[in-house]
Every structure is written in structure tokens, then in C-alpha cells.
Here is the input.
Amino acid sequence: MKPVNHIKIKKEVSVNELVKQMDSAGVLGAGRLGKAANICEAMIKDRQCKVFLGLAGPLVPGGMREIIIGIIENRWVDVVVTTGATLTHDLGEALGYRHYQGSADADDSELHKKGFDRIYESYMPNKIYEGMEDFIDKNFKKLKEKKSIKEFLWEIGRLTPNKSILKACFENKIPVFCPAISDSGIGLMIWGQLAKGKQVETRAFEDLKEIIDIAWTAKKAGVIYFGGGVPKNYIQQAMQFAKSASYGVQITMDRPESGGSSGAELKEGISWGKMNPKAKFVDLICDATIAMPIIYAALKERL
Amino acid sequence: MKPVNHIKIKKEVSVNELVKQMDSAGVLGAGRLGKAANICEAMIKDRQCKVFLGLAGPLVPGGMREIIIGIIENRWVDVVVTTGATLTHDLGEALGYRHYQGSADADDSELHKKGFDRIYESYMPNKIYEGMEDFIDKNFKKLKEKKSIKEFLWEIGRLTPNKSILKACFENKIPVFCPAISDSGIGLMIWGQLAKGKQVETRAFEDLKEIIDIAWTAKKAGVIYFGGGVPKNYIQQAMQFAKSASYGVQITMDRPESGGSSGAELKEGISWGKMNPKAKFVDLICDATIAMPIIYAALKERL
Amino acid sequence: MKPVNHIKIKKEVSVNELVKQMDSAGVLGAGRLGKAANICEAMIKDRQCKVFLGLAGPLVPGGMREIIIGIIENRWVDVVVTTGATLTHDLGEALGYRHYQGSADADDSELHKKGFDRIYESYMPNKIYEGMEDFIDKNFKKLKEKKSIKEFLWEIGRLTPNKSILKACFENKIPVFCPAISDSGIGLMIWGQLAKGKQVETRAFEDLKEIIDIAWTAKKAGVIYFGGGVPKNYIQQAMQFAKSASYGVQITMDRPESGGSSGAELKEGISWGKMNPKAKFVDLICDATIAMPIIYAALKERL
Amino acid sequence: MKPVNHIKIKKEVSVNELVKQMDSAGVLGAGRLGKAANICEAMIKDRQCKVFLGLAGPLVPGGMREIIIGIIENRWVDVVVTTGATLTHDLGEALGYRHYQGSADADDSELHKKGFDRIYESYMPNKIYEGMEDFIDKNFKKLKEKKSIKEFLWEIGRLTPNKSILKACFENKIPVFCPAISDSGIGLMIWGQLAKGKQVETRAFEDLKEIIDIAWTAKKAGVIYFGGGVPKNYIQQAMQFAKSASYGVQITMDRPESGGSSGAELKEGISWGKMNPKAKFVDLICDATIAMPIIYAALKERL
Here is the structure.
């Protein structure tokens, strides 16, 4: 048995040095954060391993956009699965809008009058929708023919004027999936076209072929989840077609006891054949906006 | 100011009587449960109000299937939005399979060998997939032509041999939406067909027309959420096209502080124009398998 | 393996009937609530078993006062351990004050001006302190000589003019412990006396003799926790001196992952010798103001 | 309104630089962690401000012991309030024992046989009690006469052979309070003496005089809470006698909705006169073993 080593902080400690000490402490949030960084490092370094990244929650309004783009541009991951909300927030910023620092105790009626949509304690300006409507309007012809959601999203990435998560995916040829894309601002913009009587070819089940094929042909697979929801579950179900995941990192504030997929511990996946019983994996209950920059900083020093 | 009335229990108290006393206590979980029952009652009784029900989490493996079917057959709700998992669990049971009482501390490797997939502390027999594969195989021709997910799901309901959530929706003409249907066992069965080179017409964005139209034309709207995820968010975004919701009940174990849609307090929706500032609404942090039967029992006595 | 039985609600179902159906569903919150009622029933019926009740959290401002008094008057438990806050709220109500239904979104500055202290969404009138000061002032001579906290609390119960938790404990000779009594409004009232130069004999460690003696001499022991904190831990440490607990029910919103005693799963106690490996026990993550009346109602019908 | 600035990570970023970027992002966990560091810095730098530190939860088994000792030796705080468990873990380590890295999924019966007590995923060797018994036995004469718990704890600190939290408090003359000291391993060791018929003079209410006096005479006050429980509440009630706290930082995994003091938001204290309406304060929901080293490292660079 290894003793718990107490963390000792010298002046001007780097994030990576701290994370290593957390790993040496070995227990609770600190220990799990240390282990999460190690497992991310191991799966990224493992040349045989395809890394699947699931992203849910308000990561863009939470200040994580540059880090996510960095992960993709570094090609640390091979597949991205995310929510329509994240892609909407990302597109909004790519079109020149910002999110704002707000308060969870705000007067929501007042915000509504002023045209700000609250996302816990960040605000999204409502006029973001105008910019997106213009963007979709202008590019609808190219988008409407895309048969899979991934192709649809890559096309948005290609057309996006500035740096963005989708542009980074497109340029680096990282497949990006978003099964519930219709459940988002982008979805609403497409509805705006449908309401005018236009047609969109994008199929609901089409992407399954690609993600399952990537899983199926991967020699090894690793999963990294920030948040749960559809992104996690969609990767998890693909893992049944991989030789089950060899590495896993789950970081979320969701808990297992409600029984939903979002908070389910990774070990539950062993029963399903999604997670290898010998896999290196860790569950960390932590706000993604705290854990993501710390792990990213540690990895940047290590890789 | 109303005083907190202490709950007094006489022998053989009915659930409805207890819920009324909880409402009279007025605070914390008890008070909110009491209020939730009242608001559900009010929105169902309000003839002008279209009621949107969002269902997420393991409600079928959690023993809620008969209650959900009851809600639909009683026509208490006008729209159902749910997850692919719930519809998969439901179809499995309609095909004669059961879920089993298990343990959250189970040996997952052992379960895997025995062919049981763990959902926290309930188990799904893996052979459920064989039955579903047969079902989809046999009925694929009828399913593959459905252009919207709702039509696809109603068709499953129509074809289902026994009582089920989807059959109840179909028979009672309750529209049922599931934007992330590809993220589920049903999705995997359809992938099985795609992998054989077959085609499915179902479109990713098509359903938006119908749900937004229902919201748009409703004189008033009410929302009831058990769990968060895509079902909640998909209804919430439709509420922007209603005259905003006049009633709201949210029951989940998710918390607001991670900033995701699942745990966001209903009042946040006011800033978006999803919730009316004058709406009657309540957030209750409670396991759905506790709150749902209690509210259902109270409503059954009241309605 | 037992299948999950779906709960079926007939009209005017009693709470006890519903709880039995929850037990038959067998999983998640519903299953655990059903099991909790069964285990409480079993330990209360077991004549050889001493039942230790731990109470933490705002149970009195939450409307649970009559139920707690009922538990004591029914002599379902042999020992009560609670917080200074609960005893302060209880004494306040015994002296004629009430708690009020409020809002978690209240303007706290405004409440402060109006003399209301907020406890999440219930309010305590600040003038409660005047009544308590008078009470302590008048009775200080009798209180100051009590060497143990239990004797000090029984004396308050004896002196209390109306029905109260402490009065019920005193009259039924149920030992009541509160190790952190100084951390409460009652503590502050005693400080008011100390500040005038008076002395109080009550010893910090004295009660350990009595609670450990009860545990030591018990043939069997059972524990019921609503909330965690000192009450739970104080009972748990006594269990090391019992033959370890044979029954256990823990109901709290606290989670295990922060590693504190409050949210620790009961099974953790097995490693300490606090819980018998063969004990019947269940952990339920649920608001106490929901679970307590339900279990009480079920027990009232069964016992 | 300030925009959310996206965190950009350059190589070998120091913890302090990261925390500043988190503050600039401004929202969710990251923003709150940034703000927590700022507020800690401000209250420590404010010469007129007395800083009260509340510590609950398994901080010593979680690897935080050196940091806590550092906080005290740096004299960043003026008062420490903690739990008996923390002081027991601290004394154990001072007597040469260690805590060990374990697993939350351990076989607790097996651990019991091997003599390890589980604290979520760290293990405490049971033989720690032998060492403590010897220590208390040897020093009982000096301890038994201490009239206040603070004097009792300082005496333990004085007598402790090696570096410890209590020794640091004693040597730096930092008052340390622990109202529920009887609820701990140290309490049990004292019970061992009482069981032999010995007497201990330590009074239950005595310490209130000193902590309230410190609060009362402070020109300004600041509070820092890692975890909730009695330590938080005991400081909060003292704040009613200060001119209310001017600074506040609360870091815990407990939530407000159960209504208990542990998870209550700091703003609730405004209604009580515990927190100044103009105070700088922040609530952060985060594992203490993650947040504490980060804030400590940031402060070490800044102070």
C-alpha cells in the first residue's frame, strides 16, 4: 500500500508539478485529477489508440474555447462528439459575438428585456441569433445537401470565417459528431429554412456508420469525457464495437445514483463491454472549467 | 408570510393527503413536491394549455413504465420528448424482456460474462438486443421510409406487439420526439441495417417543424421534466416559439452550478423567453422514481 | 434475480401501499425508500435491538417537528443524537414562535432589516432569541449544574412549557445527545450568561460514558440517520463499542465522494467495525423532508 | 459587462498564472476559483482583518496536512476551527502513522480483518489508536485540567513530538476550536480515561467566550471555509458578534438545497447579520483537495 503523500507547495510551482504532487497524494479529487492527467497522457502517447473526446455543458461560455481548439489542433484526439449548444456557442463566437460574465442571481426578466440569455452565470447576447441566421441563410445551399451530421458540421467549419472548434475539426480532419444537433440554436436556424419550405438532406442515423467504423477498426480506444449527456453515451455505445476502451477519463459534476448515463461510473461500462476490465480509467467529480485547464496545462508540458 | 405547518400523519394516510400536507409545510423538498403536484394538476386541468413532458434517465429500468403509459393514456400530456435509451428499454419490455434488480456494487466483469448490462443498480439482459434486431429486421421496410423521427417512433409503436410507451403514444396520437434516437440501442439496430447497405430516410431536423408548430399554435404551454438532457432542452427551445411556458415542473438530481441545461433552474428560462415571468413553476431536486409515483398518485385522486 | 416490477397506482393509494410497491420495484430511489421502510420496521420490531436516531439539517424549519416528536413518543428509538440548531429551532417553537415559508431567492439584506434569518427557504424570526434569552435567564440556575450535555438537555425539556422534541425525550426517558451544543442559538444564550461572569458545569466529554455504555450493553443495535454531521458520526463511533450495527438506514443529500463522514456510505462502516457485514442496511440519497413523512406514514400503518 | 475571456495555456504555466486566467474567464468553477484566490489574498493582506479558517472533511487523509500547517505557520489566519476527525488524523500522523491510498470499491470486511479503517478511498491503520492511547495515557494529567477545549488542544499541540496542525497552532498562538471534540478518536481516548473513573475538567461552553471575544473586538473579519459542518457554523455564529464578515470564501461539495448550514450559500448569512451585504465573497462547489493546493500555491506567489 502506498502512503498518502502530503502536497508541499514551493513558490512559483508550475501546474504540471502540482498535478504530479496531486497524483502522489493519490486520493480524493486531487489524486483523481493527478490520475486523470496521467491517463490522458498515456492514451495520447499510445500510437495504437484512437482517442474519443466527449464534450457537454457550457464549455464555450465557460472560457474553455481556446483549450478545446488547442486539443484539436494538437491532434490529441481522433474523434469529437459534442452538443448542439456547444457548437452554437462556438459558431456565435466565430461570427464575432462574445459571452459575458454575469450572475446566477440575476433578474431574469431584466435580462430578457435587455436581450441576454442566461447560462447559469454567463450571458449570451440574443442578437447572436441574427448573425447565425445570416450565416445559415448565406450558406444554406451548401449545407442542405450534406447527408450526415458530420459532413454538415465540417461544412459549417469550412465556411466559418474565423478560428473555431468546427473549423479546427474540419482543417485537421477530425470527425465531429453531434447526434442531437436539431436540439440547438443551429437546429433552430435550420428550422427557419424548413419553415420557408426548404429541404435538408441530413439523415438522423447516417453518422453511426462512421463512428462505429472508427471504433471497429481501432486497435485500441480511449475515451475522455467532460460532462455527460449524449456525447458520452454516443461514444460509449461505439465502444461496444471497439475492442472496448483501454483508457478512460470522466470528469463531470453528475452523480451515479440517479442511474442516468451522464453520471454513471466508467466501471459500469465493463458490464456492457464498453470498458475493458483491465483499462486504466478514472472518474473525477469536478467542474470541467477547473479540471480542463489544469489537465491541458499538465499535458502541454508533458507532450 | 405563511408559517411552516408541521406534517401530522394519521394512520392509513393516502398519498394525496400526504402531498397536501407537504404543500402546507411549504418548504424544502416536501414543500416543493407539494407545489409540483399542484402545478401539474393546474396545467392538466387548464384546457387552453398544451402540456409538454420531458423524460430522461432510467425510468423504465426504474419501475416507472406503467406510470408513464398511464400519463399518456390519461391524455394528461400533449407532447412527449424522451431519450433513445428510454425507448430502447420500453421496446425491450414490449418484446417480453424484463429489467432486473441488481446492485451498484456488482462485479461488472462477472455481469459481462453472464450477459447483463448494468444501469446503476438495475440489469438489462444483453439478449434484449437479439429480440430488437429481429423486430427491426422484420419491420425495417416500414420504418426506413419515415421521414421524421416522430413518424419513425409512431411506426414502432404501431408495430409493437404489446403495451408500450410508444404504442400508447401512437394509439393516443401523442407526438413523441427523440432528437438523439441514433444514440441508443434502437439506433444501433438501425445501424445494423445501414451496415448491410440499406438506406433510412429519417431526417435529423425534420421534427422541428412539428414540435415548434405545436408550441407556436398553443394558447398556453406547460412543461414537466423528469430528468434533464436533450428532452428538457428540446422542449425548452420550443418554448421560445410558444408564448413562453405558463407552467413548469422540473424534477431532477442535476444541479445548476455546472451550468448545463439539465440542471438549470427553470427561472433561467425567463431570460430566454422560454418561461413566463408570471408562470407557476417549481424546481425539485429529487430522484424521479420517488417523485413520479407520488405525483401520479396525487393527480389520480385529484383529476 | 428478481425482475423490476413496475409501480401501478390505483386511486386513493395509501402511502404504505405505495412504499410496498416501491420496494417491489426494487431499484434506485424508489427501491431504496421501500427498503429503508422495511429496515426501520425490522429494527423497531426487534426487541433486542437498541435504535439510535441521528438527526441533522433543518428538520424543524422543514415541517418535521410533529413527526420527530411522534417517533420519540412511540418509543421507536432508544437514543437521539442531534444538532444544536435543531434543538434551538425546537425550543423556539416550544416558546411559541413559528418558522415561515420563504424563498431561496429572497433579498437577504431586506430580510435582515425585517428581522428574519433565512434557512434556505424558511425564515426564523430573529425575536426568537429574546424568548430564548428569557427562558435561559429564568432557568439558568437549574441548567448550570448539569454535568453532562444530556442532563442539560433533559432539563431544558423538563422546563419547556409546551410539547417539544426535548420534552418528549425527557418525558419518555430517551437519552438525547448533542456534542456540539455550544454551536447553536442555545449555546449563544449560555454564552450570554458566561459573559456576565457566570459559570456552567457542563463537561465536553462527559456524555461519552452514557452513549458508549448504551452501545456496549445493547444486544443488537440499529442506526437511522436523517442527515449526516456530528449526529451521524457520534453514533457511528459508539457503534464500534456495540457489537457493530445490525441494521442501518441513512437518508441524506450528502455524497460519498468528498470523503467526509456525512456522505460516507454505510458499508464504509464495515471496515471500522461500526456496521456488521451481515447487517441489513441501505443508503438513500433523498431530501429528509420527503423521505421522513413517507417512512413514518408507512411505519405507522405497520407497527 | 465583462466578456468571458478564454483561457490560453502557454507551456510551463505557473499555478498562479492559471488562477489569474481563471479569474479573467470569470464564470463557473474557474471564475469562482479565481475569485476565491483574490478574496483570500485581500483578507490576508488587510491588516485590520481577523481571518477565521474553518476546516471539515478528510483533509489530512486527503494529503492537505502540509498545506494546512503552512497556512498556520505563515500566520495567514487568526483562528482555526476544525473537526475532531481532522485533529485525530493529524495527531496520528504526528505520532508517526500514515494514511494510505486505497479504493472506494474496497472489500470492507477484508479491510476490517487487516485492521484498516476506510475513509472513502484512503485508509487509516487501526493501530493508530494504540499510539494515541499511549499518548493520552502519558499526558492525561496535563490535559484533564484544561477548562476550555482550546486550551486542551493547545496542550496536545505542545506535547506532540513532531510537527502537526495543533503544534503549529500552539507555537504560533493561533486559537484552535473544536466544539465537537468528543465526537472523534481523541474523544474516545478521553472516554478511555473516564471509563477508568478519571475526571476531565474541560467545559462544553467555555470556548464561546474566546471566539466571540475575538470576533467582537475585530475591526474587520474574514471567513474561509473548506467544508461545512460545525467548523463553518461555529464561525458563522461568531460573525453575528463581529461587525459581520467583510470577506468570505466557501469551498465545499455540499449544496444549498437540503437547507443545512454546511451547504448554505454565504449570502444567506446576510439575513442573519453574519455576512456584510457589501462583503466580497464567493461560494465554490469543488473538492477541497483540488481547490486548497491551487489557492495556496497562488497565495504563496502573491503574498
